[in-house]
Every structure is written in C-alpha cells, then in structure tokens.
Give the backbone structure.
Amino acid sequence: MRFAGDRLPLLAGAGALAAYAIFFASSYDQRLLTVAGIYVIMVLGYQFIFGHAGALSLAQGAFFGVGAYVTGILGSQYDAGFLATFPLSVAVAATLALVVAAPVLRLASHYFALATLALSQLLLLIAVNWEPVTGGANGLPGVPPITIGDWRIARGLPLLAFVWGLAGAAMLIARWQLGPLRMAMFTVMRDTPLAVPAFGIDAGLLRLRAFLLSAAFGGAAGALFVHTNRVVSPETLGFGIMVTCLTMTVIGGRFRITGAVIGALLLTHLPEWFRGLDEYYLVAVGALLIAMVVFAPDGLASFITARTPAKPACLHAIPAKPDAPADRSSAPLAIDGVSISYGGIQALEGVGLKIGPGEIVGLIGPNGAGKTTLANIITGLDRPDAGFLRAGELNLGTATPTAITRHGVARTFQTPQLPDALTVRAAVATAAANIVANPDAHSYTDTVMTACHLAENADTPCGTLPHGVRRRVEIARALAGRPFFLVLDEPAAGLAPTEQNEVAAILRAQAAAGLAILVIDHNLDFLRPLARRLACLNGGHLIADGPTNEVLADTKVQSAYFGLVIQ
Ligand code: ATP
C-alpha cells in the first residue's frame, strides 16, 4: 500500500512514542512529553512565518506569552473554564498579530525581526509592571487544570494524550493550510520576491495569513503551557521561549510538519540527555545548532520525509480569484507624458506610447535608455512622477502590481524570475490559479505549456532548466493569466538563433490571437522580423516610434545606437 509505504517510518515512530509514553515513561517523562506536545503546536505556527513566509519573526514567544496570560489571568482570577479561555487565548494572540501586522509586516527583513523583538519586550514589560492584573514578576499561581464539562483532565497520561490530540489537530490544520498551491505561492514569495506580482500573488495577504496562523498556534501553545504548569509568569513571555522555538524549528526543520515534532521532542529532552555536561550544555546545543545550519539547513526532518512537491492537481482546492474580468474594449496600452527620476537621474521624460490589440511593438534603445524602467512602470513595480498610463480601463499609475497582473497585463523579466524548486508545471499552474477566475486552471496550464513547447519539461524543476527553456517558462507563466497585454524584457538575450526563432513563433501566434505585445530587446536580428513597429528610447526620451524600417533608418536612432551595427 503506497500510503503505508510512504509513511511507514512516521507511523512506526508515532507508534513507538505512544508505546513509550503508555508503558515505559515515568510521570516525569510524561510531563516532558506533554511539554514537547505543546512546543509542537508553537513550532508548527512558527513554521508558517519563519519557514514558509521566510520572515524572521521574533514574536512567537510573545504570542505564546499572550496565550499564557489570557488563560492564566482568566483561569486563576475569574475561574473561567478551558472552553472559554482556550479559544480566547488563540483569538487574543491572533488579534494582536492583526493589530501589529499593518506597520510591522511591511518592514524589510532585519527591521521586521527588530520590530517583532520590540513587541516581545514591550509585552514583557507590561507583564512585569502591571502587577494588579498579571501578578508582576511573580506571576499568578492557581491556574486550574483543563476541565471540559465534568471531565477534569488529570496530569500524567490523560493530559499527555489531550495535548498530543490537540497537537495532532494542529498538524491537520497546518496540512490543510499548506496545500500544494499555497506551498507553491510561499516558494515564489521566498525565492523570487520580484516576480510575486507576476504570478498574481498578493504577497501582503499571504504574509498576513502566515503571521496570523503563527500567532494563533503560539497563543494555543501558551494556553496549554500554563494549564500544565498551573502558574503563569513572565518567563512565558521571555526571550528564552523565543530562542527555544527558533532552535526547535531550525533543528527539526522549517518546512515539514515532522520537523516540528522532531525539533520539539529533541529539544525538550536534550537537557535530560546532556545533564552530565552541566554548564557546557548550552555550548553543546550551540554546536548542534551550527552543525544543523551548515550540514542540514532544512533540519532533521529532511532526512526522513521529502518536501511535498507542488502538484497542480490540487489547484481546484483553492477557489480562483473573483476579480471582475478586465474591460478589454479600450487600447491594451495607452501611455502619455510619463516621467520618472531616481535622485538626479531622469530615467524617463514625457514618454507616450499606444499599442493596439494584436500589435507587436519592439522597444529599443542604448543601455540606460529607460526601457526596463518603462516595463516596471507599466507593471506597477515603479510609480511615475508624472503622466498617465492605462491598460484597458485600469489606471496603471495607481493600481498595485498584483492588481495589474490580474487585470490582464503580464510581463517577463530581463533575468528570468522563476523559483528553482518548483516544476515548470507548478510554476505555470500557480500563475494560472492566482491571476484569473479560471475554473479550468489545470487544463489551461497544459494548453499554455504546449503553446510554449514545454510539455517535455513539465515535471522538471525550474532550477535545473537551461537558460533558453527558462525564457519560455517565463513566457508561459505570463500567458497563464490570459493577459491582453504582454511586456517582455529582453526575451532573446542569451538565446541561440533557433531558440530565438522559437520564442518569436510563440509571440507571433499569441499576437495573432489578439495579444498586444511590447518587446524590449537590443537584438535587431530577433526584433526586425518580429515587430512591424519599433519605438526607440534614448536618455529617457522617446526619440522615434513608427514602422520598423523607418525607425531603423532614422538618423537620431542611428546616432543613439552609435557603436551598434544597424544593417
Ligand atoms: P539596459 O538596456 O541596460 O537594461 P535600460 O534601457 O533598461 O538599460 P533602465 O534600466 O530603465 O535602462 O535604466 C534607466 C536609467 O535609470 C539608468 O540610468 C539607471 O541607472 C536608472 N535607474 C533605473 N532604475 C533605478 C533605480 N531603482 N534607482 C536608481 N536609478 C535607476
């Protein structure tokens, strides 16, 4: 049986653990296992933000502490029962994450880490100084045991089973949240942040989801922790918990559910096993941590289970985006008077361009002329200082990059932006599922791959593809959202003549079907037969726009291309 075969080591491990807990573990061992189960929940939550979203949050300890204090205060001071305090602990931690998300989640990596650390320190200060409510430095004793109706869960095996039951539920939730499509979206966000909007992914929402889940799991773990200890104290908000969580996640693994289990079990038991080392215990743990980072960056779980490959077969599990279909009656692209400067550099000044359906326009110009800047402005990655840009009815000057992609404006990049770990099919399918309301995303992915001659490469990871194929995968990714306008930034760069012809044929076929295309390239052998019209930028100014041969014969264009051979 395939299921059993795949998971045999895990089932055997779970069985051995259960047998140990029931038949061999002392009450102290059972307590350790209970605490490990609680940490499993905390680490599962942390994996969302630190592993999948790739953001170094130092707030997991804070969410743990918030859950602990909500349960601790309500349980010990107001006699509130588990069925009230547990959901509240989860909800308050998640609400706190929601409140701090707006300012904090926008921050770049190390600032994000510092901001989340500051949140933890602030909460710790409140816990220590708000004595009437929190009990100050001593905390609050008398947290009741978990009681559900008349069922009072005693310490030892009953509590152990209950906690691991909840840890199992947390694993199911994590599994549900991390379906193949969402895993692929997280992969894109981590590996190719520049291309996130080109995949139609809303990075803000994805990060927020990860942050809220991490907080909710952290709050749940904190609540269970104080029920186990029967006391809540500032240690639950201390940096120690955060370090423990981070260490468990790194050693166990950031991406796999089994990583949370391995990390939590190992780190809870290491102090016991290394008891003989006395004060050198921390040195041993530090050495282990460094060894893991160097030799097994994906954690111990990577030796046991393979990461779930992103299979597009499950795309239907997530409903397609309900965005209204684009109004394609107007010109696919209309630009007027667009200017932008970076510091003292005027990258574009007063640029105007209009492209109709089915038209292929080549954009040429010497290095630094402003071609990529124009592509960035059209796709929302840069904002113009002045001017007007419209695609269909959408104002490109104000819409977000993701909204622009979902509206039907696609792009490729000068250097292909594809997540190495995703297969070609997964990359194309991720875009197909995110960009348009596309009930047939699965079959449309196949159609696009066939159109781009990628059927043979469907199951190859993007990271192992030769450059020429990567260029075509980028085009397929762009076409997956059924765009009406496509801008390509140097699609022929680095391609052999036969590969260039292949790309040109794909673009011609798409234009024949009505797609408006702007092709940025220096390669006139590629552009001349492809584009009937050329536009030329020089020093941020559009110096020519017209039929290809006329533009190439223009003296201003020839002088701008001084040094390039125009035959
Ligand atoms: P190439 O053919 O070499 O790719 P290009 O025509 O695409 O050149 P751009 O990359 O658009 O030129 O750059 C236009 C000018 O704007 C250059 O002088 C560049 O240094 C500057 N520039 C572009 N982006 C930025 C930025 N983010 N910050 C500062 N300067 C920038």
Observations:
- The longest helix spans residues 203-229.
- The chain has two domains: 7-308, 360-372+409-560.
- The two ends are 66 Å apart (CA to CA).
- The chain is about 55% helix and 10% strand.
